[in-house]
Give the backbone structure.
Amino acid sequence: MSANAALQARRVAAVPRGVASATAIFATRGENSELWDAEGRRYIDFGGGIAVLNTGHRHPRVMAAVAAQLERYTHTAFQVTAYEPYVELAERLNALAPIEGPAKTILFTTGAEAVENAVKIARAATGRSAVIAFSGGFHGRTLLTMGLTGKTAPYKHRFGPMPAEIHHAPFPIPHYGVSEEDSLRALDFIFRADVEPERVAAIILEPVQGEGGFHAATPGFMRALRDLCDRWGILLIADEVQAGFGRTGRMFGIEHTGVKPDLITVAKSLAGGFPLSGVIGRAEIMDAAEPGGLGGTYAGSPVACAAALAVLDVIAEEGLLARAEALGARTRARLTAFEARNDLRPIAGVRGPGAMVAFDLVTSRGSRDPDGAAAKAVTAKALDRGLVLLSCGTHGETVRLLFPLTISDPLLDEGLDLLEDALRIV
């Protein structure tokens, strides 16, 4: 039995099936944009731990910062004994975030935890309870964030009932027949049929949907939401967990729209592979909760804070925002060429700001009918060739590319060659 197969057998016996793995390989080492498995086989990593590794596996600056912090202390609980890395990171995030006026930041551990606390903060600040989210949005797997998530299978299946006072509007995706006008009409319908706007604490959305298929909200749609929120005193929450920290060519995805939210949730690539998340928001909103109302035992781990400070240095000093734009342009050009070819599996809808790039597998050339089975086959064949790929999308039809922003051009091209091979085989 191979090493991967032996580990898989142990995994099946020891770990519940509810936590699925996209691959059946077991990682033993990672460096920048490459992984090696238990059998010593090398892979190019276009998954990035689900958008966590914008600065790559084990970036030297991040590892050095973590090693230095480990020599000092690993945990005190910020609520018991505070520490400077937390405060310094909050200061830097406050300065970077596209928030109107003074900002404050609170740190947590996971993206779902950040979203939960953003809703808590919004409810405390407004005295209201209802929240509106969008179809296709992914906000987490805890009870509240599962309710906010706009996709039933697999995230809500058999886990009901969902939390009360959460409402969903369709996210505008024109090729699925949903225009921006349709989405805004749906919001008006919610206000007329389900909950009056005066009872809505927040509207939350991903400026670029992650699990939903890398669909971006347009500047016009975001301005309409901002106007709606301002009209009714509703807070606008931008969930930047997947799109943040350079992935889209900006520090935050919403910066492409020119709209400033009231609250921003962050996680994933914030700390270069270490568990850390946060909520950044307007200072007067962030101060709405009473002392003791927010926090967590491991929230804002000093080790993760040290890693995050190094990540911010790397993004600035290595020019990763501009690098994301260059990598994205190179990738989209190659994918657009794939789309025009007759010898590859049909794809459509090459898209994405910066290096947040995706495309859809479709049933036939010139169609936009989604083919989730083909997407699954392509990711499997890519893995066989030595490329880690992830699928997503409402119908599982989307292949997303989340290579580190530190990847070299030759390694990117090699990965795209392997993707081309997979599309040809399938």
About this structure: The chain has a mean pLDDT of 97. The longest helix spans residues 320-339.
